[in-house]
Amino acid sequence: MFQTTRRLLLASTLAFGVASPSLAQDTSILTSVPSLGFPFFVHMMKALEDEAAALGVATVQSDGQNSTPKQTADVEAAIIQGVNGIVISPSDVNAMAPAIQTAVENGVPVVTIDRRVDGVDGILAHVGADNVIGGEAQGRYIMEMFPDGARIVNLQGQPGASPAIDRNKGVHNVLDGNDKYQFIVEQTANFARDQGLSVTESILAGLDSPPDVIVAANDDMALGAAEAVKAQGLGDQIKILGFDALPEALAAVKDGTLAATVEQFPGGQSRKAMQIMVEFVKDGTVPDESLVLLEPIAITTDNIDQAERLGELN
Prior knowledge:
By secondary structure, the chain is of the alpha/beta class. The chain has helices at 2-16, 39-55, 68-81, 97-105, 131-145, 162-175, 193-206, 219-231, 247-255, 266-283, and strands spanning 28-33, 58-63, 85-88, 110-113, 125-129, 150-156, 181-188, 213-216, 239-241, 261-263, 291-294, 297-299.
């Protein structure tokens, strides 16, 4: 089995197009995110790179380009090139499991970040936000805004991505079982802004009356939904909630376009994940806890000063 895997790794190295760690510093860590087309992952990657530089290690950067085969090939190439560790946010937690298992079996420590992979033994640690709690924060804020009940459109994230699954679970944990709160439409928009726009347009066209709330599993979908709502002149009637506290979403909270977003501290996740990896690679230090979860909070106009990226607003 390993011989077959090794042949695949050798083939994929040519496609990876990165410098060998031996040409960089003594310690090199693969940093891999699902897609640098998403501002959230750009911020996360920058925090990983900055923390690695502060700790004196080199990185090999991987943009998964929203493609499991691409991210798999990058991981396999990094293994054969001899990276000392992998810090990865998997594009699909199930589809990426074999590549992560290959890394573990080849003695390469792995720390997952943001998206947790179950079923792979030997992962050094997972650092992320408790996305269920984040979804629950959205649900509680809906109840706060609409104590007498609400009709809700739920824009779900990418199927198979653990944040999408957990955030959806959290919203339902709070609102299910209370007849005052009705999910009138639930549909994926794959964490993408253009799909948030198009899906919302389609949903609004098919409803007899506007919903009270659109709750989205990330800010990109929420901002896309906001465009659709504005185009139909419904901005004053529909409250929109996002998740990720992107700078653009924070600006939208300030001006009232979004009612709230959820801060999950991706920079904090990234720094902690890199710290765990470097301590293990350099000193063999195993983290006290293999599961490190930061607690997300709903950001509104009342507490926007708590947002991690507030300083990035113009």
